[in-house]
Specification:
Length: 100
Amino acid sequence: MVKFFINSDTQFHQIIIGHCDNEHLKKIIEQHENYYIFYRVIDLNRLERAKSSYLEHYKIFEALKDRNIEIASKLTEEDIENAKQIILQNFDQYTFSKIG
């Protein structure tokens, strides 16, 4: 189930990025795609977080569909902050536990 969420999450991000008019952003994301995949797995490795992320993305999608850029932007910032916090909380576990 988590694998499904990770694949869906990746597709969601690709669609959003694919429709932005910022070529510089697209290039940066393309250059760092492997890192994004690694951290996406860390962020979504628990079913409850995967569900939470799905709901966050659904709200972003609804705001974009309604062309409510202010709400979409706010929700996107919250989504990024939530993912960042999960990654930071689990960074040592996923990075250093594989070494030793």
